Amino acid sequence: MGSNCTNATELWAGVQSGNKKALSDLYEMYADALYEFGKSYSSDSCLIEDCIHDLFVELYMRRKRLPVARNVKNYLFTILRRKITELSKSRPLVISPEDDHIRRIYRNQEVSRETEIIHKEEKEELGLLLTKAIHRLSPKQRKGVTMRFYENKTYEEMALSLDISIDTARTLIYRSLKSMRGNWP
């Protein structure tokens, strides 16, 4: 690395302050590992590369709102996994004509209408169970869970909004999830 930054945490801080060299060094440090990690979620190499590039562009665009990352690698991997999952749902499956083996596999995996109905009912039932578990929480816990998991707020954003410390926000979510697990049938 040609930067004064020696580790990922320093590079992260550099990105937060708008240092493009730190962003470039962070990309160099993790691009290959991110690509290998992405292959466990998709076989579409173009999709993986797009997601990695989008990830770094968004890091720079959101640099002033980035949280303090205790483990930069885990943060990047988590965001990449989410991006791949989201983009995989929206992109149509494209299979090259010369790959007969893969085409045969997908042709034989047509989902019956009955299977679709069963999956839909299971998803609805799970949604109801989750809703019941959330409604058993205190109002403050419900607000915290909503902010963290439905609005995708960081602990820092939660703390500001709820007028509590970041550690208290983490504890609130931890206890809420523990309570929900205890109320799960």
UniProtKB/TrEMBL annotation:
UniProt xrefs under InterPro entries: RNA_pol_sigma-70-like, RNA_pol_sigma-70_dom, RNA_pol_sigma70_r2, RNA_pol_sigma70_r4_t2, RNA_pol_sigma_r2, RNA_pol_sigma_r3/r4-like, WH-like_DNA-bd_sf
Any one GO molecular function term: sigma factor activity
Q: SUPFAM superfamilies annotated for this entry?
A: Sigma2 domain of RNA polymerase sigma factors (SSF88946), Sigma3 and sigma4 domains of RNA polymerase sigma factors (SSF88659)
Q: Which domain of life is it from?
A: Bacteria
List residues of the RNA polymerase sigma-70 region domain: 26-86
Write the record's keywords in alphabetical order, separated by commas. Answer: Sigma factor, Transcription, Transcription regulation
Mention any Pfam family matching this sequence.
Answer: Sigma70_r4_2
Family, similarity comment: Belongs to the sigma-70 factor family. ECF subfamily.
Q: What is this protein called?
A: RNA polymerase sigma factor, sigma-70 family
